[in-house]
Amino acid sequence: MKTLLVVDVQNDFCPGGALAVNRGDEVVDFINARRDEFPLVIFTQDWHPAGHASFASSNPGTQVGQVIQLGGVDQIMWPDHCVQGTHGAEFHKDLQVRAGDPVFRKGQDSAIDSYSAFVDNDGRLETGLRAFLQDRNIGLLEVVGLATDYCVLFSVLDGLRFGFSVQVNPGGCRAVNLDPDDEERAYRQMRDAGAVIV
Ligand code: VGL
Ligand code: ZN
């Protein structure tokens, strides 16, 4: 049984949002149109407490886009985004999230970022997604969402690392592209790690 994993299709990653992904809103119709092909659709939300350590505003003297060390790992400084309970953290209003669809929230530890839907960036705390999938004998994921070069990328790499078969559907993904080559590099990394780009 193939499960659709929809990563971070939230207002702040869409045009007009705090960390807007170019044409990020285009994934909404694509995902809505495909969701009925899947018996199970799982959503994630980037879900930061105010003052989260990944925000430039929480690290005086830093600028958005700068890389600092946080808990022993590289951390890009982001604008404040997806703060718990704010409009920016809500799903895009047209995204079909139905009653009963599981939602996993990540990035809730104020001290460490979490790009992956599975585990924090320092590899310690899991979101529960791995156990959820294993308990239901789900071995195959199709991943879509925002952004290709961060949360989609790391979710895919962790999914593979945890033994799942992972497909990525570019029609349902858009990239931040801090560097214009980031999207292409992300697809290459995912393919090299064993993902199938459909
Ligand atoms: C993301 C940057 C910071 C993402 C989340 O969802 O791709 N990117 N936080
Ligand atoms: Zn974030």
Per-chain topology:
Layout: E1 2-7, H1 26-34, E2 40-46, E3 67-70, E4 73-76, E5 103-106, H2 129-135, E6 140-146, H3 148-161, E7 165-174, H4 182-192, E8 196-197
Helix pairs in contact: 3-4
The chain binds pyrazine-2-carboxylic acid and zinc ion.
CATH level-four homologous superfamily name: Isochorismatase-like
Helical fraction: 10-25%
Rg: 16 Å
Each distinct ligand: pyrazine-2-carboxylic acid, zinc ion
CATH architecture: 3-Layer(aba) Sandwich
Account of the protein in words:
By secondary structure, the chain is an alpha/beta fold. It has one domain: Rossmann fold (3-Layer(aba) Sandwich), CATH 3.40.50. It is 21% helix and 22% strand. It has four helices and eight strands. It has helices at residues 26-34, 129-135, 148-161, 182-192, and strands spanning 2-7, 40-46, 67-70, 73-76, 103-106, 140-146, 165-174, 196-197. The chain has a six-stranded parallel β-sheet with strand order 5-2-1-6-7-8. Strand 7, helix 4 and strand 8 form a beta-alpha-beta unit. The protein is globular. It starts with a strand and ends with a strand. Bound molecules: pyrazine-2-carboxylic acid (VGL) and zinc ion (ZN). Pyrazine-2-carboxylic acid binds next to helix 3.
Concise synopsis of the structure shown:
The chain is an alpha/beta fold and about 200 residues long.
What structural keywords apply?
8 strands; binds pyrazine-2-carboxylic acid; alpha/beta; Rossmann fold; single chain; six-stranded parallel sheet; 21% helix; binds zinc ion; 22% strand; 198 residues
